[in-house]
Specification:
By secondary structure, this protein is an alpha+beta fold. 43% of the residues lie in helices and 18% in strands. It is built from 17 helices and 14 strands.
Length: 473
Amino acid sequence: MIRRLLAALAAAGVAFAPAAAPAQDFPPTMPAAGTPKPFTVPASETYRLPNGMQVTLIPYGQIPKATVSLRVYAGGLNEGEDRWLSSLTAQMLREGAAGRSGAAIAEAAAGMGGSLGVGAGPHETSLNLSVLSEYADNAVRLIGDVARRPDFPQSEFGRVRDSLLRNLAVAKSQPQPAADAALAAAYYGPRHPYGSPFPTEARLKGYTLDQVRAFHSTNFGARRARLYVAGRFDSAAVKQAIELAFGDWAAGPERLRLPAQPQPGPRLILVDRPDAAQSTIRIAFPAPVAGDPSDLQFRVTNALLGGAFNSRITTNIREKRGYTYSPFSNVTWNPGEAMWAFNADVTTDVTGPALKEVIGEIRRLQTEPPTAEEAAGMRTYMAGIFVLQNASPGGLINSIANRDFHGLPANWLESYIPGVLAVDAPAIQSIAARTLPLEKMIIVVVGDLAKVEPQLKALPELGNARFERVTPF
């Protein structure tokens, strides 16, 4: 349309001359960041049904929508040797419930303005539905039917299981899942569910619908469930719907807890991928647990070291040296423990130099505090990201559910920004020195070992590491 308009004006004899752009410096001077504002969690109501199920209602925002999220503490931790059985069960939940087909369930959710999401992780199965405000009570009832009264239709079972088999085949063909599996086994040990995240193809192919039904009946119950509703909704109508949908749910078992006992290094785990153009790298250390006195200090340290796009490691091996495209570090928190991990895919020929630079950045942060300006920038960045993450009903539910999952204090979310802003440069250096001891790191490298292993053996930083070749799948 714009092109046709310009052509017509040109045909009419209208001439266009480019406007003179005002002279300016490049890059322009960026405005100074403002002072981060405190974050206040909206007033909420939490109560418990007689059967033990907990409910949190959070009136929030101005948009006429509501998010309903049911978290059931039943996931990979509850599978025993049957890896991905919880995922298979979760996918089967929405294939039919309370006499409605999967298509009818999807149609009902769409009629409310949303779509039902169901998924399983290491610790929980979640059911999520965002709808127009006037349908919040109906959304509660629909989630109640799907979670409590699944039909588990035999006609859909083969298709759902085959989809997971395809996902498994894809994962086994890629270096990143291989690195993740090798790291998990080395760090947690293959006997703990955290240490064995993938099933064998034969085991997954052998699962039956009876096993799915048994997993659901054994692990789903009111005492393991927490329901969150956030957004704009009629509180009285939603409470009535909750009582009708969940009030007679059997209490079921208490939440399962299987504390992990991480096994730090030094270890160097190698996975051969002949002729690979890149090497996939993982470096892992134990990290402070969620809510630990040093937790927030470590979060800021992680952002500065590798967790933010302008972190030191990213600036070094991506921007300065061009070894990789998207390196990053993150923290995984489990009940009672946590793991810091660095992740990158680097060109094969610079695998050793890239590792040398990453280790060098860790060592530099342990021996030299960052500048006050650098520390302040990371604090401001983290405070801003936190506010953005909690700017929607779904994001706020995730934060509150995470707080509840880890048993953190009720004011933990309100104290997050003040706690982050209190982390100064000396504290960052101190926590890096205490929590990232190079003599205890685990390194995983997936790549062409004929080219990579000589590079690694030439690094003085790996002189005390034990080289081990493994096959993760």
